[in-house]
Structure formats: C-alpha cells, structure tokens
Design goal:
about 230 residues; about 15% strand; about 55% helix; 8 strands; TIM Barrel; binds SN-glycerol-3-phosphate; 12 helices; alpha/beta; 2 domains
C-alpha cells in the first residue's frame, strides 16, 4: 500500500519521511491553512523536501470546471511533474478531470463520500479517488466498508484508478484497508506514529539491550564489544 503524509507541517514531513517509507504528501486547503503560512510557500517547501520523484497532492480551489482546470495548470507549473491535482468529485469536477486527462494532467477525485462519486471520477480519468473514511463513519455509515466497495467496483469494471483512502482517525481503520488490498492511504502524522506505538514492543527491545549489557560486562553494543572499547 502506498503511504502518504496527510499534513503540510514541514517539520513533521521531514521527521516522518526520515523514518518511514513514505511515498509523498497530500494536502488540501484546510491542511494548508493550519500551517498559518502562505500556501504557495508551504507547497514549494514540501516539494523541495520530497525531491523531484515523490508525489505531492494539491487541491484546485474553484468550484467551477474552468477554474479547476486553471488551478490545475498553476499547481503543476509550481510543483512539477510528480504532482497530482485533487479535484472534488462533484459534477463540475468530473468535467475538469476529463479535460485534464486529455492534457495529460494527473488527478485525484477527492471529497468522496459515496461509491458512485468515486466511480464517476474514475471513469472521467482520475488516477486516484479519495474516500474520506472517518468522515463517512461520523455520518453513521461504514467508512472502511464504503472504501472496500469502491475498490471492488473499480476492479470489477477494469478501471485503472487507484483508491487513496483518506481521513483516518486510528491505525485500525488503515489496517483494515491494507488487509483488503487498498492501493494507497494518506494519514495524519499521529495515525502514522500509531502504527508502531506499542508499549510491549518498546519493552521487548529494552529487554534485549539490558540482557546484552549484562552478558557483555557493561558493553552497550556489539561494535564496542568487538573493538574492545566497552567496559569489562
Ligand atoms: O485528505 C483528506 C483528509 O485530509 C480529510 O481528513 O481528517 O479532515 O477528515 P479529515
């Protein structure tokens, strides 16, 4: 499963991409607004951090097709080739996605709350569709179930579009979708950290360190023990 950071805090992006196998960063207007900085400056900095080869997702702001297309051109000029333009999966958005596909501009149908929105965005030519898992849960529906339905519909109809699951509140939601074969997920930093935040694992690792120190007469690691520089 491709893994993206759903955040625009550049310190967090640097920290997480140093640790985890991260495929890129997704943003939306609200995420950019939370930085309190100029969105263009933030996006440029994220591109520099990611380098030229990893994907950055940035959203077109207008709600009419012509405006979306104009924004898509501006976003791609700003961020380069490995850019996916997020377009809301609304009627105007399908129109924009179809035109952008003809121009070779890569898109993600976003703000997906229902399978048919995803299907239409995929048929229009989106490379990704982004169901909002937790927001669907909060409406009283099944976010993971809806996402798996979308995945199955796209497979059954031979659509090459990938599902980029978004809007997570916990790692269990991500695990459920990973196990179901969903191709991509984008998660807030706290959710990514939550994948491996396990007290039992930390304790097991510390036990190994302590046992080695006891066995090696106080040496903290294998390298020191072998070079004879550890205590004895
Ligand atoms: O990528 C879409 C996502 O950012 C929405 O997440 O947490 O605002 O529901 P959230």
């Amino acid at each position: 499963m491709e893994l993206y950071i759903d955040d625009a805090n550049t310190k967090e992006i640097r920290r997480l991409s140093d640790i985890y196998p991260v495929d890129g960063v997704t943003t939306n207007p609200s995420i950019l607004a939370r930085t309190g900085r100029n969105p263009v400056e933030v996006l440029k900095e994220i591109r520099t951090l990611l380098g030229p080869d990893r994907l950055i997702f940035a959203q077109a702001i207008p709600t009419d097709a012509e405006g979306m297309i104009r924004d898509a051109h501006a976003i791609c000029t700003l961020l380069g080739e490995q850019t996916i333009v997020k377009i809301p999966a609304i009627p105007e958005g399908f129109q924009a996605i179809r035109q952008l596909k003809k121009e070779g501009i890569r898109t993600c149908g976003t703000v997906v709350y229902s399978p048919m929105q995803a299907y239409l965005a995929a048929r229009a030519g989106a490379e990704y569709v982004a169901p909002y898992v937790n927001r669907i849960d909060n409406l009283g529906y099944d976010g993971c179930g809806t996402t798996i339905t979308i995945h199955n519909i796209l497979k059954q109809h031979g659509c090459p579009c990938k599902v980029l699951a978004a809007s997570f509140k916990n790692s269990q939601q991500v695990l459920t979708l990973c196990a179901a074969g969903i191709q991509a997920a984008t998660c807030a930093p706290s959710v990514i950290d939550g994948f491996v935040n396990n007290a039992a694992v930390k304790e097991a690792v510390q036990d190994f360190v302590n046992d080695f120190r006891n066995a090696a007469g106080g040496s903290e690691n294998m390298a020191d023990l072998l070079s004879g520089s550890g205590e004895s």
